Structures are given as C-alpha cells and as structure tokens.
Amino acid sequence: MTFLEVKEQANALFSHAEFLVHIKNNDEYKKALSLMDELIEEYDLYKPLIEILSNSIEEWENSAEEFTAFNLQIKQMDSGVAVLRTLMNQYGLKTNDFKEEIGGKSMVSMILHGSRMLSRNHIQALSTRFHISPSIFFEHV
Q1: Residues 37, 30 contacting (CB under 8 angstroms)
Q2: Exposure of 116 by Cβ count < 10 A (0-12 exposed, 13-18 middle, 19+ buried)?
Q3: Where residue 75 falls among pLDDT bands split at 50, 70, 90?
Q4: 0.70 cut: is pTM over it?
Q5: What burial class does residue 121 get, using C-beta atoms within 10 Å of its C-beta: 0-12 exposed, 13-18 middle, 19+ buried?
Q6: Residues 125, 101: contact at Cβ < 8 Å?
Q7: Which domains does the chain carry?
Q8: Residue 141 has pLDDT above 60, yes or no
Q9: Helix (H) or strand (E) holding 87
Q10: 60 with 29: CB under 8 angstroms?
Q11: 19, 27 in Cβ contact below 8 A?
C-alpha cells in the first residue's frame, strides 16, 4: 500500500468518524464509548484502532467540563482508592458488591473513607476480577 492510499483511506475513515481522533461533544463521546465496547470484544484484531480511540476518549475525559469535578476529586485521593471509586463508577457498583475481593460493605466503606488501606490480596483480587494490572492501584509519578 502506498502512502497516498493510506492517506486516502484515513481521510475517508476520519471524515465519517472524526471522533476517533478528536471528540468535540457529548454525543461523539457516547459514540466513542459504544464503539470501544464493540472493539474490545476482539481486542487483538482491533488493537491499533482501540489505541487511537482510547487516546481520544482520555483526552475528552481529561478536558470536558462535565468531568472537572470528578477529575479533581480523583486527583486528591489515594491512587488505590481512586481506582476503586473509578471501577465502582464505571460498573455501577456499590460497597456491597466486593464481598469476594475485599469483604463486607463496612470494609469497603472504611477503605473508601481512608481509615483502612487496600491490601495486597485486595488489589490482586480486584485486578483479576476487572482484568487490569495491579500496578494501576499505585501512584505513578
């Protein structure tokens, strides 16, 4: 494939789905999330497109006014608690939904309010359940 062909195909794709590289509004954000849900089902096949789309989604979530308060709250939290809160938000989970990974509702509440810390076992169980790296629970400077 020549560079000209690559450029032509890219122009055709991005003229129909500009949100792949730059989300401009909430409707495009919703489209991006819906497409990501579909692409994730066949991750290996769509990995390059997933990487492009995830950058676009991340940029929107970091800059959109609707996420300002949430991003500020997350920035001020312990990174492990921030990840736990983010998972709860993304999956619509409550404190009593982590019996297998953390324990009862009261233990989860104590972790969320800072009176207890996530243990190594908690982090491993959460990482397994949500298919994420344990390193995400630790602050990256």
Answers
A1: no
A2: middle
A3: confident
A4: no
A5: exposed
A6: yes
A7: 3-67 (no CATH), 77-137 (1.10.260.40)
A8: no
A9: helix 79-91
A10: yes
A11: no
